[in-house]
Automatic annotation (TrEMBL):
Entry EC no(s): 1.15.1.2
Taxonomic placement: Archaea, Methanobacteriati, Methanobacteriota, Stenosarchaea group, Methanomicrobia
One Pfam family linked to the record: Desulfoferrodox
Family classification: Belongs to the desulfoferrodoxin family.
Top class in the EC scheme: oxidoreductase
PANTHER family reported in the protein's UniProt record: SUPEROXIDE REDUCTASE-RELATED
Renumbered residue ranges of the record's region Disordered: 1-25
Protein name from the UniProt record: Superoxide reductase
Swiss-Prot/TrEMBL keywords: Electron transport, Iron, Metal-binding, Oxidoreductase, Transport
Keyword Electron transport: yes
Source organism (scientific name): Methanosarcina horonobensis HB-1 = JCM 15518
One GO MF term attached to the UniProt entry: superoxide reductase activity
UniProt entry tagged with the keyword Lipid metabolism: no
Amino acid sequence: MTTTGTEEKVNKPLDPANLTEGEKKHIPVIEAPETVTAGEPFEVTITVGSIPHVMEEKHFIEWIELYLHNKLIGRKELSPSGEKAAKVTFRIEADEALIAIKEIETCRVRGVNICGNCGEKSVITNLHAVEKCNVHGVWESYRQIEVMSGEEKEEGKKCVWKA
């Protein structure tokens, strides 16, 4: 059982390939760039549900949290608004230290990618969105994101990873 900081059970889809209508209304959808550069701000938008969740007095999303590599980045409290969807945007930035942390946590060979053209480092990590519906509890989703090192960046050159 997965829990949030509030120690509540996190609901998960029974069959991720065939979501129910209720699951489609509660699982957070994360919109973010596929690749970001450490130290440069970027936006992450979280919409609750691929089918928009209502924000009515009796049924609404109480809050949405965003984590980057298991670190809480932000939390937005919400309230009934009559809007057709629960949606928030966070402006965040990945710290250069994330690359070193990921390298230590995993493996020096597979934890960090090194570009064969420019020597730039990157890591693949997760954005993790968690939301709480006042009626149906806590739901979560994940999305991978690549964080490029900003220290050795060669401007205007798209990295091609060496095999």
